[in-house]
Amino acid sequence: MTATEAERTLFTGAGPQVDAVAAGRLAALVVDLDRDLADCAAAYADLYPDPPFEPSLFTKVAQAIGGQGPWHSAAQLRISNRTSAWIFALDWIMDHAAGSLAEIHDTVARCLAVGDGDDPAPGDRLGQFLAELRDVLAATPAWSRFGPVWREELRLMLEGMAREWEWKDAHARGEAGLPTYERYLDNADNFGSVWGNVAHWMHVGAPATLDHMEPLREVSRQAQKVLRLLNDLATWHRDRAWGDLNALMLGVDPQFVIAHITALTEHCHRMLEPLRDRCPQGAVFVARQLGYSTGYYGSGADYWGALGAERPRSDQ
């Protein structure tokens, strides 16, 4: 073995080879992404109360974003990174901080107005953060073509989150049963990964990726269902404790969900196959999104910290 090969190769006890140079570059990328999210969390501290937003949450997000697109620079992944952080803030507000349907609808309306180009209201920190993301994308060449797509995916995510809140509220009031498993999974846009992918691809601006935005959105929507179910398997106990909805509350067992994840994942890879040559960056990004999440959630890991004795409220 040459010195160069020795420097590049690590051996685990089981024997697989890992490219040490690639591992080091990924570690450096994650450090840069983590620093950016630390700055972001400091700038919008009122959106990220601790608990449940432990500092490690942002490191976990940075690791996920870096793991999905390790060939990119930190600058290229910045929108994906910050969009993920914004979704966490939104999720906390919509699932826990909001105390009424009126608050939910107000949050949706304010975010959609910002998505349309309006200035956020004074004190609307969630809207201010969203406007920052919007303005970065609006400065890209892709905005004129895909700005409406970004806004549409924002709407789908917001409405999906509101719909889940309505389901939980109606069930708690004894006015309706929980949704079926199928209806719940059809609402997976509340996960937000398609919106995040669209933002990332617009920001990077790779021509082949942009030219295949529609098939990439289609496969991302199927992948989003996989991510939803992987998350539910890993967070079943937390969801019960926090009062969140979970697929395992809807008449199915873990074995059923695992089998469905396997089938959906295989379907996603079949959809990705013709895209690998046409738009390799976009296709591989989705494939790695699936792979990373399978490994992460499959280990039982979670992004959130402990809730604490009380649920802190955000002033948004």
How is the secondary structure organized here?
Blueprint: H1 3-8, E1 9-11, E2 17-19, H2 20-43, H3 55-68, H4 74-97, H5 101-115, H6 125-138, H7 143-172, H8 181-186, H9 193-204, H10 207-211, H11 213-234, H12 236-242, H13 254-272, H14 275-278, H15 280-298
Antiparallel strand pairs: 1-2
Helix pairs in contact: 2-3, 2-4, 3-4, 4-6, 4-9, 5-6, 5-7, 7-9, 9-11, 11-13, 11-15, 13-15
Walk me through what this model shows.
- Pfam families: Terpene_syn_C_2.
- This is Terpene synthase family, metal binding domain.
- It is a single chain.
- The chain is mostly helical and 316 residues long.
- Helix 11 (213-234) packs parallel to helix 15.
- It has a two-stranded antiparallel sheet with strand order 1-2.
- The relative contact order is 0.11.
- Helix content is 70%, strand content 2%.
What structural keywords apply?
316 residues, mainly alpha, Farnesyl Diphosphate Synthase, 70% helix
Total number of helical segments?
Answer: 15
Major sheet characteristics: 2 strands, antiparallel
**Any idea what the CATH superfamily is called?**
Farnesyl Diphosphate Synthase
Uncertain regions spanning at least 5 consecutive residues: 1-15, 309-316
Give the CA-based shape: globular
Q: What is the straight-line distance between the termini? A: 57 Å
Strand elements, count:
2
Give helix % range.
55-70%
Q: How would you classify the helix and strand content by structural class? A: mainly alpha
CATH topology: Farnesyl Diphosphate Synthase
Q: Assign the CATH class.
A: Mainly Alpha
Characterize the quaternary organization of these chains: single chain
